[in-house]
Fold this sequence. Notes:
single chain, alpha/beta, Rossmann fold, 2 domains, 7-stranded parallel β-sheet, two-stranded parallel sheet, 11 helices, globular
Amino acid sequence: MKILVLGGTQFSGRAFVDLAIQSGHEITLLHRSPTNPGLPESVRRLVGDRDPENGAGLDEIKKLIEAGERFDAVLDMCGYVPRVTQASCELLKGACDRYVFTSTISVYDKDSQDEVPDEDSKLIDLEHKSVEEVTGETYGGLKVLCEQVVRTWYPENHTIIRPTVIAGPNDPTDRVTWWARMLSTLDAMVIPAPPSGLAGFIDSRDLAAFFLRTIEHEISGIYNAVGPETNLQMHDFITRAHKALDSKAELIEVDQDRLASMEVNSWVDIPTWAPAESQFMYRISSQRAIDQGLTRRPLEETMQVINAWDIERGRPDLKAGMSADRMREVVESVHAT
């Protein structure tokens, strides 16, 4: 199959490109970087910004279309603003059989009353729909609007996938990588004492495999991609990762009030540990995707692969979570009382 990827040089997009090439598909990739970020040689690279107001990336695709080229599918990895998403949909409407759009579980209204939110649960209604600045407050609402654009232009042949936190090699966020690093390198670390809520992430390779499956099997619709398993407790995630990594770190359980008193905050200082008002994100159902072939590997495998990748890249400073030095200070404070 001939597949066009918008974005795709990082993380789950990169995992998709590698998997699709291994599966024998022809990949054309539009990305902004003028350098080749380690892509397989068989990938045809188009360089340019897809936003018509910022670059001529879409013109490169237009040249191919005008020369008679068609694509079996497009995988949109970087649609964040509806105006930009619409430009891509409009250009490709007559030259692409399926539009696969990467959305997010952040589209769901956190005030939804659904105990187990699914694809039909209430979505965010962005108040200022003309806004284009992507922030923590606008991200989910903008993705809702992008989804609407895709469904309008591809009413019968759209696939919209809403992943949760993504984990795996080449992670630019370091949210789950933080856990692998701390567990693998520290002598001791504080963790939130139970009940500490749920945990969750989707392995980038599992997400990539589901992208490809929806293309190969012409699967339409909207699907949540969450994992690694249903109702995974944060405490169980930590202890299982600790064992999988053969960690020697002492795990010091501290209740949440005391953590707060030490200015150790959920999500910011301890990544993926969601505050109470955000726990809904870990209850979201992925059953519809599982019924269509989404597979989720054990968390132990994901953590081991992340740790190996982190070592291979030289363990640079992390972009998420408290530093190792800060964690040592917190541990010392706990031990001193």
